[in-house]
Structures are given as structure tokens and as C-alpha cells.
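Suppose you are handed a protein chain with no further information: no name, no annotation, nothing but its sequence. What can you learn? This example shows the usual starting point.
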Amino acid sequence: MLTLAIDVLLRVTGGRLLAGPESTMVNGLAIDSRAVEPGAVFVAFPGEHADGHAFIEKALLAGARAIIVTRDDESVTAAFAAAARPECALVCVDRAQAAVEALGAYHRERLTCPVIGVTGSTGKTTTKDFLRSVLATGMRVVATPENRNNELGVPLTIMDASAETDALVVEMAMRGPGQIARLCSVAKPTAGLVTNVGVSHVEILGTEEAIASAKGELVSAIPQSGRVFLNGDDAWTDVLQGRAVAAVTRYGLGQTAEVRAENVSVQSDGTPSFVLVSEQGTVDVRLPIPGRHNVYNALAASSVGLYLGVRPEDVARGLEVATFSKWRMETFQSASGLTVINDAYNANPTSMRAAVSALGDVPTEGKRVAVLGDMAELGSLAELAHFQLGEEIAKSLVDVLVTVGERARRIAEGAVAAGMDPASVRPCVSADEASEVVDDVAEPGDTVLVKASRVMGLERVVEGMIEPRV
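A reasonable first move is to predict its three-dimensional structure. Written in C-alpha cells, the prediction is:
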């Protein structure tokens, strides 16, 4: 974890000491007063919903040894004085975000372990979860928790690592050109993995070419001594490889991939199995999560694990026992007898199709019900992408389609236009309405998939199945 003296903290952040000694040592950093541990730095972010400056006293009572603020006023100094111990320090900086990034970069320079950056249009969180499990078979691993993958989450993840860490896995999100380059300037990855390039974020970047360029910022950041891992079956891989100065390993289903899957099949419970083939050996793998698309996520993790010296049999074991961030193909049985596949965290055309395909692979005693909401950030492609998804759903094994939102109404229209029975298509305006519809149409033995972009809040539909209406 982050460890440094206040005088070093002042130099790194460019802050001013308002109170306390420069010689105080701090260990760890928190941006939530509830997460403060004794000896830590608490950074008071001026948030939209809650101002961290209001929690200075609480952080000190929890054991914080230093407080970083962006205001130097009477309320701040009074809150500090009310609970500070003699060794506590109060530091003022111009921007809290810049201070956290600077401290993350400082801590990164002191780490000697491999740092693996992971990005991509789809599958990066699941891939990161697979990779964490593969490496953990023989290493002490720190990896991005949940989706803490932005300009704040990346430095926080870095500061979770220590001298004892054997590998650091950093997921990197992209919201615009230059963002991944910015994250790389802090994380300085020694290896980089791009899962794929798709049309997610096209509203922000305009074209798929621009998306590939943004993802390629990770590829360009890997030094010659490192390694880049690319999906050999993705259309943009040749372009991405052209930006690499490091050696490139390709994974995929094709025979030219250095790490590949052969004999892919789906088991009776809907989970994929395959033979993992690499120069290190061949091993059978069975994944713990439904969806053929997860074979690619598993291959990506496998290629990094093999590069870092994990034996093929341990790679297979790591894949088989992996656990995943919430709302990613999270499958469970409800009290009312439904099989629920909760993939409500995010969505784009590629991941939507993959989830619908996975729904078809899951055995069910009753109907297959797809609850699908708006896909965000598709720009001018939104209308067509939603309509085409509906057309494909009409040809799938989905028995009942419930859509949520105005854009998703085009999914319903596409499904009906392609021949799906209109009586089996239920457009809804809100998640609450969709929850009522699911309560009406779903019966014990049915399997229900829930998926949409995060802004739609479809977890409320899942909650409705966990706690059905009375």
C-alpha cells in the first residue's frame, strides 16, 4: 500500500501543509471515510452528492493520520482541530483528482511486479476476473475491484499493491481519446491486453476507427521489453499490432493463434468447455460461467498467465474456480423457481448478442425470457443497432421479449418485423413497468436474462424477481 512521509506527500502533490508535522508517516489512502484504516490518508473530494470535507472529523476518528482537502477555510480547520491527534497532518491541494493520480504514479514507480493493463469494448471486466484467478494459483495478485477502472479507480488500485505483490492487474476504461494514455502514464503497464474493438462509445468517438485508436493507446504504451495480447479473431487486430513496439501474442479460435481454443462445446448447464492449446501444452478447460463468448475472455486471461509462467494445468484450474464482478452473467435460482441471468451492468450490440446466445445455450424447463434495455453511447447507429438486434432475437431461442426504454422499443419493432409473435413482445417504458411484466409472464421453470446499459437501472427488475410482489 501507499507508504510515505508528509514531506514527500507535499512534494508529490504540490500541496501546502496547513497543520501537523511533516515527519508523519502515512500508510494507505481512502476517498470514503467509511473505508479509512488507521494510519491512512483521507482525501476529501468535493463530490456531487456528498462533500468529503464534511467527513474530516469522521475520518480522523477512524484513524486517518493525514487529511487532504481542496479548501482552506474555517470549517475545514475547525473539523480537523476537533479530532486530530498530535501526529495528524492537514494538507491543501488545488485538485483532489490530480493529487490522487500523482500519488498513484509515485507508488507505481516503487513497484517491481509486472503490471498488466486490460481494456476492450466488451469483456474487459470478465477477462480481468479470469486473469486474477489464473494468476492467483501461484502468485499474490492485486486486481481492479469490480469496475474501478477510471482516472480515479486506476491510481487507487495501484496503491493497493505492495512490495509483496507478484502481479498487478489494472482494468482501464475509455470515455474519450487520450484517456487510456492518461491511465497508462500513471500505471505504466509492462503488458497490455485488448479484448476487442466494437461500437461501444461510438457516440463519443464517432467511428469504430477512432475507438480502435483509443484502445490502441494501451498497445502503444507497452515498452519493447513487455508484451501485448490481442484477440486474433478481431477485425482490428492487425491495426492494433501495427502500433506495438513490444512483441504480440494472439489468442483466439484460429489455428494461427499462439494460444487457442479447440473443440469448443457447451455443457448441459450452459457453460462452455474447450481444449486450451499453446506452446506450453494442452489442457482441458471448463468455465464456471455461461456463454460461448466467455471462451475469448478465458483465452485472453490464459495467454497472459502462460506468459507470466503459470503452468497450463494451473491456468485451467484458475479459470474453473474464477469468481466474477457482480451483474456479469450472474446466474442464480429465485425463490419463485426462475433461473435468472443478471447481466445488467452494461450493454452494447456485441455483448447483447453474446448474452442472447448464452440464454439459448442454458437449458430450461420453461420459456426463455429476455429483458433488454437501451444500449447507450451508440450515436447515429442507435436506431439501426437496436432494430437489428431485434431481428436477430426473432431468429433466436428467445420465447418472450421484454424491452425497456425508448431506444429498446426498436428492438421490439425489429423482432416483430422479423416474424416474432407480437403477443410475445412486451415493450415497457421503465424498469418498474418491466418488473411488473416479468412478474406476469414468467413462471417457475423459466429462464430470464436481464441486460442493458447501466443507465437503465435494470437491477430493479432482478430485485423484483428476488423479492416478488405480493
